Amino acid sequence: MKLYNGCEIPCPGFGTFKIPEGEICTESVVEAVKAGYRHIDTAAVYGNECSTGKGIRQCGVKQSELFVTSKVWNTERGYDTTLRACEKSLADLGLDYLDLYLIHWPANRMQFGDKADSINVDTWRAMERLVDEKVVRSIGLSNFYPQHMAAVLAGANILPAVDQIEYHPGLLQEETLALCREKGILVEAWSSLGRGKLLEDTVISGIARKHGKTTAQVIQRWCIQNGVLPLAKSVHAERIRENFAVSGFELSPSEMAEIAAIPEFRYGSHPDTAAF
Asked: Residue 116's domain is classified under what CATH number?
């Protein structure tokens, strides 16, 4: 897929959430690259940037051929702390630059009251500086809904390239998707497989059988056909290969609609009430 600034972002992406620091993480990244992934997504709070970086260095593919994302955690919001957080992530990853850096969660009004917008704007100013200093190629948001984006968009010199949100069948996020499409912001899906719950869904299973695909492959394809870039995670080589093989088939409009009609559910926190 292409970002509005012309950067290409490989699809789908390989997520590392909940993969512990250590050899399993390193091996998973190596396996992902071997399977064809060129997009690796991590975050400071995942606690695995050192092992992710090791996997990137051991995978046999140059960093210039990969797309690496990390994120600034909530405790580091603000101008100076965001700059230091990025510096630490780069050191832990063992990289000179990041392809994409995201604000992991917005400061919300429940926690910060009227200061929430100014905290998000100050954090965004630091993100823009990181682009100016060429240590980050693209910047974006994560878990930002329209009410959190408004102040950032109003004062931005560089618009967000990405908004990474919980998105899957059962959580369509129509208002956020509409705003992102209007502004040219690519939406990425975390928990695209519904943390495993959707793998047993009878509607998706039936569609998967018709195509000779797995339920995970159908869900990823559904995201892509909606213009959303899915992130999937596994530490098992076979599943890693499976989750990457999402080309070569197309879901029909009726199949897309059937999947979209799955009853609503959410796994993660709502950004308005997240208290961490």
From this structure: 3.20.20.100
In sequence order, the 6+-apart residues with CB closer than 8 A to the CB of 157 are: 128
Establish if 30 belongs to a structural domain: yes
- Residue of 37, 46, 101, 145 marked active site: 46
Residue 160 contacts by C-beta under 8 Å, 6 or more apart in sequence?
139, 140, 141, 144, 149, 152, 153, 183, 185
Domain assignment of residue 4, yes or no: no
Q: What digits encode the pLDDT tens for the residues 198-255?
A: 999 999 999 999 999 999 999 999 999 999 999 999 999 999 999 999 999 999 999 9
Q: Please give the tally of structural domains in the chain.
A: 1
pLDDT, tens digit (0-9, with 9 covering 90-100), for 158-199: 999 999 999 999 999 999 999 999 999 999 999 999 888 899
Closest C-alpha among 213, 216, 226, 215 to residue 256: 226
Backbone angles phi, psi at 274, to 5 degrees: -60, 130
Domain assignment present for residue 5? The answer is no
Amino acid, res. 26: T
* Tokens, residue 130: 């990181």
Tokens coding 19: 């993969």
The single-letter code of the amino acid at 90 is L
The verdict on pTM exceeding 0.70 is yes
Q: Tell me if 122 is assigned to some domain.
A: yes
Q: Look up the domain containing 232 and give its range.
A: 13-260
Residue 46 catalytic?
yes
